[in-house]
Design a protein that fits this description.
5 helices; alpha+beta; seven-stranded antiparallel beta sheet; about 160 residues; Stress-Dev_Protein
Length: about 160
């Protein structure tokens, strides 16, 4: 049986290790694009991204983001709302040297926008295959769901 709270905690742990997602607006036919997540441990069900005001995501709306962990052992599909939120306190909190390299005008760069992604629902998978599952995989045995790891559809990513 899947430990859903553990699966949710793992999402934030894995995003912290490799904060890269593909994100796109679902109301358009435009492709998703890679973004670097800015995580605020004080926020639940929310991810921030620094983008340019000329970025196609800046118009906001219903959005979806996909995540694959660095070790390819955790996967997430997140849906929610994207909104430009130029909260100066949040910009100050999340600002870093890597972000500054994209915005030569610093925090006052006229093209700087802080995109807030509020997660409404998430589908999470952990490929934490059991030892029995790994042996079956090596020798062509049938993999059962109990050998695979965890999976859940959740309305909140809070653990």
């Amino acid at each position: 049986m899947t430990d859903i709270a553990k699966l949710k905690r793992k999402l934030w742990e894995k995003l912290g290790e490799s904060p890269y997602l593909m994100m796109g607006l679902t109301s358009t036919h435009e492709h998703s694009e890679p973004l670097t997540a800015m995580l605020d441990k004080d926020q639940v069900d929310r991810i921030y991204f620094f983008i340019g005001r000329d970025n196609r995501l800046a118009k906001g709306g219903p959005a979806m983001a996909q995540f694959v962990s660095k070790g390819h052992d955790y996967f997430a599909c997140l849906s929610g709302q994207a909104t430009v939120d130029d909260d100066r306190a949040m910009i100050d909190k999340l600002w870093s040297k890597p972000v500054e390299s994209w915005f030569p005008g610093g925090k006052d760069d006229p093209n700087l926008a802080l995109l807030r992604f509020d997660i409404d629902e998430a589908e999470l998978w952990e490929a934490d295959m059991s030892l029995v599952g790994k042996v079956k995989l090596l020798f062509g045995g049938r993999i059962r769901p109990s050998d695979e790891g965890g999976h859940a559809v959740v309305q909140s990513t809070a653990a």
